[in-house]
Fold this sequence. Notes:
10 helices; 12 strands; globular; alpha/beta; TIM Barrel; 8-stranded parallel β-barrel
Amino acid sequence: MLTKRIIPCLDIKDGRTVKGTNFIQLRDAGNPVELAVRYCEEGADELVFLDITATTEKRKTLAKLVKEIATHINIPFTVGGGINTSEDVSVLLENGADKISVNTSAAKNPQLIDELAKNFGSQCVVVAIDAKLINHQWMVVTHGGRTPTEKLTIEWAKEVTERGAGEILLTSMENDGTKNGFAIEITKKVATAVNIPVIASGGAGKMEHFTEVFKSANADAALAASIFHFREIAIPDLKRYLYTQHIPVRI
């Protein structure tokens, strides 16, 4: 059985790590390089870096900061934010990213997924899907959760898989930053609908939430931010706890 992954997320704004609730009310959470080093030492399985305002500010991801982080860590490193072309991906890979994450650009131009998978391999392409409950349906939203689309979350997850995505990063906008637990229902539906790994994101507040998303929703990985940034849960403690719950993790 494949081990379940624990992934801290660095949401970056103006070169600093920030964290909010439902993608707003941002507060400073520290130096991204120092956090990255700490997570590497604590046993994080991977690290995700999201330049959360790159798309809305219509600029490229901070390649210099990506490079600085990459030189300090030795775990898989996914970078997203403001990626619109193969050239953008090349720059980030040259600066130390192992995988890239596309969200808004993929929703606007689905062919981008095909292009990136062809040029860099599916293992490099993570499609981030931000899902929000609109009229009792889980819909895809873009631009950091600000812009609703006509896409149904499950149908979009199937499409990105067919187009060559190697992984899906699924964030529930309803749960993000609330610490009330992951969105189990939609995570399970997406994980059931596709044959690629699904990373659950949004809502982690206590160790039991990780057990629930792995056992009840069959997520392949779980991503969290503030509980790790502010030392509410330590990754080594979380992994030891999951091990006692018979969840396979790398310790």
